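Dig into what follows:

_____
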Amino acid sequence: SDRVEYVNPTISYGATIKYKLESYNYTIQAISPSNQYISGNILMKGRYINEKDIKEKNKVTTIGRLVARDIFKGEDPIGRFINLGSRAFKVVGVFQDTSGDTEENKLIIPYTTRQQILKGTDLVGNIGITFDQTIGGSGAVKLSDNIKSFLKKIKSVDPTDPSGIRVRNVADEIDRSMQFANALQIIVTFVGIGTLIAGIIGISNIMVFIVKERTKELGIRKALGAEPSEIIKMILTESIFITAISGFLGMILGIIILNSLDSGALQEFFITRAGVNLN
């Protein structure tokens, strides 16, 4: 279909990785070259798994940055052989990932190589599919429904069986998240406007008291020839100056506190980077 952008069959498994006299345990993903674009892998050196590897079922692997660091300890991993289980694979590349450490602790190999190791099976764990963004959220939902119907048909699954084939549509989830975010933005806007109005009222009350306390001073200024507009301008200038100084000081203090949280100074008391390790 012209609505499909990338297709990525995946088989995930764990195996003992051996290099020289040391052993390690990592997650291995048997994938297609599309995984680089779907998962956001960024090649650091060497090359990624390519279509030739898929076709020829080559025993090659592209490894995550942290895998290269832990196994090779400063050596150049390109061209080295490591044992994945009982089979030797040649390291052809190193990648890093936009998602961080979890993905960089993985090794990737061609999915056809894994299928051959599993005695020529054609089974995969899951299939990742990306779509042309121009079709929008509703188009993505329709596409996922069509894919589910197609898979049920070719795999002889009852069309009414809701659990026969599981399809997770991220686009639908994003649409719901965006609707929630838009509603939250409207609420935050109203709260912000209310806060500004409260601030304006508070400052105006303060300035009223200031004017009352300076009645004699203002009277002397008027007696000396000051125009009412000049007195109003003076009062407004003072209020703007006080507001600006307070605002900048508050902003600077907020930046300092947030940087302190992120740098680790207050991590003992606050959760700064919430997350769940899926391994």
The longest helix spans residues 170-213. The two ends are 34 Å apart (CA to CA).
